[in-house]
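Help wanted!
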Amino acid sequence: MKQFNSRDIDELHHLYRINLINSCSGYKSANLIGTKSEDGFSNVAVFSSVTHLGSNPGLLGFFLRPTTVMRHTYDNIKATGCFTINHIHQDILEDAHHTSAKYAREVSEFDVTSLNKIYRDDFHAPFVDGCPIQLAMEFVEEHSIPANNTVLVIGKISQLFVEEDLLHKDGFIDLSKAKVATINGLDAYAVPDFHRRLEYQRPKPGFAGRED
Amino acid sequence: MKQFNSRDIDELHHLYRINLINSCSGYKSANLIGTKSEDGFSNVAVFSSVTHLGSNPGLLGFFLRPTTVMRHTYDNIKATGCFTINHIHQDILEDAHHTSAKYAREVSEFDVTSLNKIYRDDFHAPFVDGCPIQLAMEFVEEHSIPANNTVLVIGKISQLFVEEDLLHKDGFIDLSKAKVATINGLDAYAVPDFHRRLEYQRPKPGFAGRED
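Answered by r_m:
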């Protein structure tokens, strides 16, 4: 296997390093986060770090760098206390990826792409029309990460919208049926067309288990 | 679309809720985290929350509940300051998923599955032999999440091992070529067999950009 130690990584060319390190954690979620400023400028941006934190209450988190990039998303969340999460699917890959371009605050990504915003139930932040799963999120807390000057933003799910035919009887949402994408690295999008569900696992006979 | 508000979510049957909320953030990374206690008990466990935090330095994070489940992984990391991250791939799906069974501390998942541990360069924690990407991680910091009593553990990549034929000239690691898995919800594994790389995006002509 090819081996890189931390010094090798430090000394890599910038672009090589960001491709390598962005690829090395595995597949990432592919979401569009929608926000709107207090003065009415809407924003939508691609994020690959939305992660499940817990189901009771339903909490999700994501990472950003508020002082450098993605500042519109962060500023809008801090000012308004809300945002939306919308799943990127096969039909909108190019437009979703284009939201990574660095537009000025007064330019809405909804105006320069074919992505359409939709408002639901008087929620302040815009959803992305047509996404198979759409979440209204309330800001809960943020954590500064001193190690690299990023911020973990945590939100609570206040509304969950899902296309009915994706929903199994036990609550499972079939992402492959929805043609939801997953991200490899910075710029590669995969759309899995199949999955296998495995059973709940218990210790094998003859081996000691634990209670928790 | 089917709609759930936060009260609906609170009132769902426990199993329905964990399936629904675990599915709703999108595809998740599929990793085995390897650790070893100070007194020599090795542990390997499936995690779906490993997330990229930054490339310079190379930082990854993951979430766990130290007071309830996954305590062996957490205790070992806190005691020894290190762990490994190993990508789950098509050939080990069942064994990887089986590591979610609740074994006693003295039972190593390496002994009850076909997963084989391997040690590299005197690193204390075991790697999972055969995984196409294997990372040696040094503990950096942890953050308590009051909202649901979880912990974000952040580690720095100290060694990165990757199969040579997965590595593109620009540092991109081809996860689909490696048959790396991604997780949908609690128990569904997908193995994407294709991806599309899209170009770096700049603002379209006629629209204002920003500097950052």
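OP: Thanks! One thing I noticed: The first strand of chain A starts at residue 2 and ends at 5.
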